[in-house]
Amino acid sequence: MAPVDAVARPFFSSPVSMNRLRPPGAVPEDVFAGKCIRCGRCVEVCPYHSIVPLDARAGVYAGTPLIFAEQIPCYLCMKCVQVCPTGTLRNITQDETRMGLAVIEKYSCITWRGEALCRTCYNVCPFKEKAIHLDQLRPVVDERHCTGCGLCTHGCPITVSPGKKAINVKPLFAQARVKW
Amino acid sequence: MGLSRREFLKRTAALTAASYVGLELPFTLHKEASAADVDKWVRGSCRLCGVGCRLDLGVKNGRGVALRGVPESRTNLGYLCMKGMLFYKVMGHPERLTKPLYREKKDQPFKEISWDEALDIAAKKFAGAVTAYGNDSVAYYGSGQALTEETYIFQKVMRGGLKTNNVEGNPRLCMASAVGGYLTSFGADEPIGSYADIEKAHCFFIIGSNMAEAHPVIFRRLMRRKLDNPDKVKVINVDPRVSPTSRIADMHMQFKPGTDLAILNAMAYVIINEKLYDEKFINDYAVFRMGKEKKQVDFAAYKKFLEDYTPEKAAAICGGNITPEKIRTAAHWFAKSPATMSLWTMGINQRKRGVWANNLIHNLHILTGQLLKPGADSFSLTGQPNACGGVREGGGLCHILPGHRLVKIEKLRNQVEEAWGIPKGRIPPKPGYHTVAMFEAINAGKIKAIWINCTSPAQSLPNADKYRKGMSREDCFIVVTDIFPTKTTELANLVLPTAFHFEKTGVYGCTERRSQLTPKAIDPPKGAKPEVWIVREWALRLAKELNDPVIKQCVAPFIGKEEGYELPKAIWDEYSQKLTKNRDNDLRGATYEVLKSMPDGVQWPAPTEAFAKTGGTVKKFVRGIDPLADKEAKDDKPYQFYGPAHKDRKLWIWLRPYKGPAEAPDAEYPFYLSTGRIIDHWHTTSMTGRIPELMRANPYAYVEVNPADAKRLGIKPGDMVEVESRRGKNVLPAKVYEGPIEGMVFVYWHDMHEDRMINRVTKDAYDPGSKEPEFKICACRIKRVSGPKPLKPYIVT
Predict the structure, then answer these.
(1) SS3 labels along B777-796
(2) How many distinct structural domains can be found in chain B?
(3) N vs C: which end of chain B shows fewer Cβ within 10 Å?
(4) Which residues of B427-463 are buried (b: 16+ CB within 10 A; e: fewer)?
(5) Model ipTM over 0.90
(6) Under a CB-based contact definition with an 8 Å cutoff, are residues B263 and B253 in contact?
């Protein structure tokens, strides 16, 4: 079940926020709740239990799928996009996925602070060297390749505050507006 | 399927706020490390890799709570990696062993017994084996992570007390070829230079080493040197796999695994034929030798030998991206730079011809005179924190005695016997079993009792299944001393819980001949004991069992000493004052008092305390820097090679032909398999696997597949892939990545899960000289078995 912070929101406000992501291929958040029929197939098919169905506290978003990236990230197996019956999750490939963009907090990252040598985010990245590369042993994200899967967030050993790591996924693309 | 339909409906329909059990880590590293609210900081060195970082342990209420780097240290300059910053979490871990465990038969469950019973059983079993089957039916298998005092006292009891040279250790699996290389090329073991050369070098030749992951803190120094002088400093990386180390390289030479001997000879060819060599240096200090009988040959013969290795011929052998031009450029950079430093690790050592590969690197340095001057060195990086200090210097291998003495030389044996005060001839003249032979002897039922200390051969031996079968024999009594359950304790009869780093006192000797003291800072968990205490008590019981006063004599100087500090100090004093005296690793100046007063440690040779307090010898063999070079000088040349192995006091340039790996790919097994270490984990993960931050960063091993191969075989990122050799198979998730060269796969070796333990697949062929197994190359085949699967990290509990 969804952690408390995801649902302590006003009735109509979207649960999508930092490290709270829609599964791969999701249509913009603007239309997501209208398009998704809460069938739960994506939740059911996800082998990693990454996708969580929201409960009643999510208001009109109850039943829609959400990924809590720092807890269980998306491993990009792309099973969910194949079963979505409505096209709310479009059938896209791994490298087309844009669940968000990983952003490094340079004041929290232990490598950027120069205190120790960590490159967990680089090591766990499924598009290593493309989405995250090392510049002078410090990780740098490339927005052209980052899928926003959250593996880096999950792996990051630094917890800045509950739900927040030194590298976080910001769901930038979910904010796109849809023209009617 | 992740969630059953019924369960899903139940959840959504009920719409209740069930609490989510996540893996929250309310943990902030930097806050904890800089916390001022610790009671005291105790200075020691890092428990993990061979770099030898100095660090402070923060102690609060008698518990270790934080670690921080020591800025004044000449090894790490205050910097640490994540492993080094987090290993304090091992100390108070709930899974620590605290009671001796015993079982009569290996299929029974363990039962807890007292220390008295445990030591009695260990003594009875070893004594029984010696009486019934002879002295060579018992063995000790130690570790490059045991403290020097521990290795020393174990081997003393085995050799002096039990009259067997069956003393081995896991450094055979990582360092033996480097030892062979140094001895045959320079006449003395261990590097000539230091880390300090990094800041003075102008060309780095990194071959067979992923130091960015395996020695991250040293790599950082090297990277700084390069980035601060991007035009002045060249970096050549020679590796069949593009690794994180390759990222700073000006030139990456990618070749078919196992063909690097041809590259090195081809570079020598270019150096000779384009007159890049240092003629005066060669005439003054070097001779050419070849073959088993070490026949001396002349320069012309060497030149003729190299005719087979023109850059064109070598490029044809090596494949990959190697072109004759590349070899020429590399040779020019190497020879012409003001100072060239080579660095290598297991890619060179863990090979069928590891010693030869080492020799060929040394050759390049001798030919070009890139040796002994500031910034120039042929520098082998050590994997483990005390492989150099404890095992290579302390006599932890079957053919060597403490102080770099060879077992087979009677005079040296007698020196040791005299120092120990035991009868002459007590130490047998024949070297014992080397590692692979030792475990083969267990398979054959020749070893009836073995003591395995601080290592997990059940996971770290190549072709592990073969040797695990032998270790599970009922007629081989196995004692394991460790802090956690491991794959090896699963095969043991008797498991003895030991104290961890900072819970006991002792010395580690790192890569650059530097000995560093780690004092006891906290108490071990109740019930765990330091190894030195265990050995002393065991030896006293053995003496009684076998009615042999000489065994008692071996531990007599240590009876009654307090085990936390006084006992290791007495052992260190005996070792350093009596056994390193007048040897090339003279440590007489490095007493506990001196070591404690230094922010880092002391580099040997350090014959006097006054000299040791300056930090010791930064560069061996150089008059004015190395006190032994002055003392042993036979002429007025600036360099004096007094190493014990070369009577002619020369450097030897070896004519070593190209030889491929023991098992090359064929139609049935078309891929090369190579293995390596990852930054987050240490060896078999018995420690780092229990640190949640590190386990999250890297929960399990995976196989790296080149995108071209992946495409051909239909493997997508995350797919489960079966890696199979003639010996065994693994099923691991795939990482598709431009790392390994096409036709090669790469697997990290730390994972304990049976499906992902890659040493079940690797080959146990070994170097005929160093007896080090060829972990790095074998043939395998891969196939996709399924799509991605959720995996759980695996830890023995």
Answers:
(1) CEEEEEEEEECCCCCCCCCC
(2) 4
(3) C
(4) bbeebbbbbbbbbbbbbeebbbbbbbbbbbbbbbbbb
(5) no
(6) yes
* pLDDT tens for each residue of B526-584: 999 999 999 999 999 999 999 999 999 999 999 999 999 999 999 999 999 999 998 99
Asked if the structure places residue B60 within a domain, the reply is yes
Let me know if residue A5 belongs to a domain: no
Tell me the chain A residues in contact with residue B680 when contact means C-beta distances shorter than 8 Å.
120, 123
- Whether A6 maps to a domain, the answer reads no
What letter would DSSP give residue B398? T
Specify the pLDDT at position B788. Answer: 86
Do the chains contact at A68 and B26, CB–CB below 8 Å? no
Ranges in chain B, pLDDT < 50: 1, 12-34
Q: Residue A127 sits in which domain range?
A: 97-169
Please give the Cα distance from A173 to B707 (Å, whole number). Answer: 29
- Domain co-membership, A42 together with A64: yes
Percent composition of chain A: helix, strand, coil (DSSP 3-state, to 5): 25, 20, 55
* Chain B (23-82) residues lying within 8 Å, Cβ to Cβ, of chain A: 23-30, 33, 69, 79-82
CATH of the domain at B245: 3.40.228.10
Q: Tell me whether residues A53 and B8 touch, CB distance under 8 A.
A: yes
Tokens 């019934």 -> residue: B132
- Residues of chain B with C-beta less than 8 angstroms from the C-beta of A43: 2-3, 8
List pLDDT tens digits, range B348-391.
999 999 999 999 999 999 999 999 999 999 999 999 999 999 99
Residue A136 scores a pLDDT above 60: yes
Co-location of B282 and B366 in the same domain: yes
User: Rounded to two decimals, what is the model's pTM?
Assistant: 0.89
Decide: residue B603, CB within 10 A, 0-12 exposed, 13-18 middle, 19+ buried.
buried
In chain A, what residues touch B2 (CB-CB under 8 Å)? 43-49, 51
Does residue B86 sit in the same domain as residue B109? Answer: no
How near does any CA of chain A get to the CA of B770, in Å?
34
- Final residue before a domain boundary, out of B90, B112, B127: B90
**pLDDT at residue B4 in the model:** 62
- Tell me the nearest-neighbour CA distance from A180 into chain B, angstroms: 31
Chain A, 83 to 142: residues with Cβ < 8 Å from chain B are 94, 110, 113, 115-120, 122-124, 126, 128-129, 134, 136-137
Which pLDDT belongs to residue A24?
Answer: 94
Range of the domain at B729: 671-786
Does position A123 have pLDDT exceeding 90, yes or no? no
Task: Say yes or no for a CB contact (<8 Å) between B698 and A134.
Answer: no
B478 and B376 in a common domain: no
| pLDDT value of position B795 | 83
With residue B442 as reference, give the H or E element that holds it. Answer: helix B435-443
Is residue A111 a part of any domain in this protein?
yes
* Bridge partners, B451 (sequence order): B140, B479
Tens digit of each residue's pLDDT (9 = 90 or more) over A60-112: 899 999 999 999 999 998 999 999 999 999 999 988 999 999 999 999 898 88
**Among the partner residues A4, A113, A120, nearest to B680 by beta-carbon distance:** A120
Q: Mark yes or no for CB contact A77/B787 under 8 Å.
A: yes
The pLDDT, as a whole number, for residue B26 is 36
Same domain, B251 and B338: yes
Contact B33 A49 (CB under 8 A): no
- Local structure of B532: helix, strand or coil: helix
Assess whether B83 and B206 both reside in one domain: no
Same domain, B270 and B158: no
As a whole number of angstroms, the distance between CA B495 and CA B97 comes to 9
CATH number, domain of A43, equals 3.30.70.20
Q: Give how many domains chain A has, as a whole number.
A: 2
Same domain, A18 and A91: yes
